[in-house]
Amino acid sequence: KVCIHQTDAEAKSQGIGKLGAFLDCSDRMLILYSDVYLRKLWTIYEVANFLIFRTIFAMDVVPVQLPTVIFAALPCGYLYTTTLMVWRYLGYANPSGVMQYVIICSFSTFYMLFLRRWAREKVRTKVQLREFDVSTCMCAVEA
After folding, report:
1. Can you state the angle between helices 66-89 and 97-130, rounded to 10 degrees?
2. Local structure of residue 40 (DSSP, 8 states)
3. 4 touches 16 (CB < 8 A)
4. Per-residue pLDDT of the chain (143 residues; tens, 9 = 90+)
5. Could you give the 3-state DSSP secondary structure of residue 32?
6. How many CB atoms lie within 10 A of CB 53?
């Protein structure tokens, strides 16, 4: 993990001057992608420098929403399992197919809301990539 200093002008200049050498020594690049990634000139500069030395296949792009999507599934699975355990504890036999369907659908609804939000984010990302223009990038000091 490396960051270029944003407030010390001399350290910033040295970091920018060595960026090419650092990226030349890097085999891979991990991008934690959010909706602002392609709007910042700085991140575009880093990607362009990396692609001078490596191919796009050496880049790993991970949406920052991915952990939310993954961890949203955990409570749904937990609630489903807990419901079945309570059902059996109360002395009922395994729930019928219809009852299991109702239980699964009720918990899956919450997970589907997360997946829907993630899908919308992926569509926005594709639109950003298709409509990318360097002249619309933000160029500011991130302090």
Report:
1. 180
2. B
3. yes
4. 567 777 888 988 888 888 888 888 889 998 888 878 877 777 888 888 888 888 888 888 888 877 777 777 787 778 778 877 887 788 777 666 777 777 777 777 777 887 888 788 878 877 877 777 777 777 655 54
5. strand
6. 15
Which residues are paired to 33 by β-bridges?
63
Please, what is the Cα angle at 39 between 61 and 10, to 5 degrees?
A: 90
Q: Radius of gyration over alpha carbons of the chain, in Å?
A: 23
The pair of structure tokens assigned to 44 is 């575009």
60 contacts: CB under 8 Å, gap ≥ 6: 28, 29, 30, 31
Whole-structure pTM value: 0.57
Measured between its terminal Cα atoms, the distance across the chain in Å is 18
Listed in sequence order, the DSSP H helices in the chain are: 9-17, 19-25, 41-53, 66-89, 97-130
Fill in the amino acid letter for 126. Answer: K
- State how far the Cα of 19 lies from the Cα of 29, in Å rounded to an integer: 13
